[in-house]
């Protein structure tokens, strides 16, 4: 098992938690257990069930504003990953030499568990869940946390896992200085959230490569050898850990690749070879071959049996809102891919489905470049139905590549329009490429409204 890292932050005194969501409440409960004088501050509203958790634990909280004078008296601040480092309060805390860290970095100091960390622009939720599924089926005592599931800090406070599989977003990685991933997985890098990175791709690449920061020679780094942005990042960020690449276009001596029999082949030093026909995978599509390769490498590195890996990779059910089958109505399949909040995720969705597709997309544009979708739009998409307040950039980019592109006034309206445009054998795909918060609370709300609208047809 991994050793507890050296403590780099205060271990007692006043601790302020910025943000009263899953991450913040879990952090507060762990901090209280350790012995900090802890309180939670949220500039918005804290959900009732989180208030109940805080009250049961005897933890003070405020909502609707930050009491900055009290926060500035803290010995340590743990902030939500959704709060940018550039906000004035965070800048003032740093100027005062008050450490501002992430939940993941805070909680990692208090567990002996081996940390398996997964990041990437696309596929990280699926790969995280798949990895957890394989390891669990293999008999390991493993928790699931990070950007998915219950708070990592809460589990460290209340559970005794030997392993954690952590989904880490770039926002989470940005707040980490001393955190060490025993196993780091980098799936891919495509332009996303560039508004948070001064619209510079190189800044976003640097953020993703923070996952290998502090790794040691005995650790492991798994990465995609086919991804150009990852290869570019490797020119600057040299791994200290052992490396295992994966590829579907080249044969690799060590790592995972697609052999001439259309099988995933995994080779790790001093272990027997694993092979599995890609047609036997429960998740289909080229992007899911990559996801299975990454998860398979992690599992093989933990010395799981080939039979267990094959059974797990053949039985896994995908997460909600990621290429989730909803219904077949009048011969038309309805697929919920609400979690596709960037252009690359939409590309993966379109690539994995057969023509003809009625695509529902749109929302809060994060500086998207739709150029990479044009070929798939031309060859696979019958029509585009736009959701969201302003879809002018979608029109500008894709209007010439599809015969039909229309606006809608609500998710229900979008689904009704799509159902009229679709023909028997078609697929209606919700894959927005954009953030959700102009019409919806979050991508889950968007996906649930889509599913409800489909079932009401």
What report would you give on this structure?
By secondary structure, this protein is an alpha/beta fold. The chain has three domains: 14-98, NAD(P)-binding Rossmann-like Domain (Rossmann fold, 3-Layer(aba) Sandwich); 106-315, Mur-like, catalytic domain (UDP-N-acetylmuramoyl-L-alanine:D-glutamate ligase, 3-Layer(aba) Sandwich), CATH 3.40.1190.10; 324-455, Alpha-Beta Complex (Protein-Tyrosine Phosphatase, Chain A). 35% of the residues lie in helices and 21% in strands. It is built from 17 helices and 20 strands. The chain has helices at 22-34, 48-57, 68-71, 88-95, 103-108, 124-137, 152-158, 170-174, 201-208, 228-236, 286-301, 306-315, 343-352, 374-380, 392-398, 411-421, 443-455; strands at 14-18, 37-42, 60-63, 76-79, 100-102, 114-119, 142-146, 163-167, 183-186, 220-224, 242-247, 255-258, 263-267, 274-277, 324-329, 332-336, 357-361, 381-386, 404-407, 427-430. Strands 7-8-6-9-10-11-12-13-14 form a nine-stranded mixed sheet, with helices on one face. Strand 4 (76-79), helix 4 and strand 5 (100-102) form a beta-alpha-beta unit. The longest helix has 16 residues, at 286-301. The protein is globular. The mean pLDDT is 91. Belongs to the MurCDEF family. It is found in: Cytoplasm. Keywords: ATP-binding, Cell cycle, Cell division, Cell shape, Cell wall biogenesis/degradation, Cytoplasm, Ligase, Nucleotide-binding, Peptidoglycan synthesis. One of its GO terms (biological process) is cell wall organization. Its EC number is 6.3.2.9.
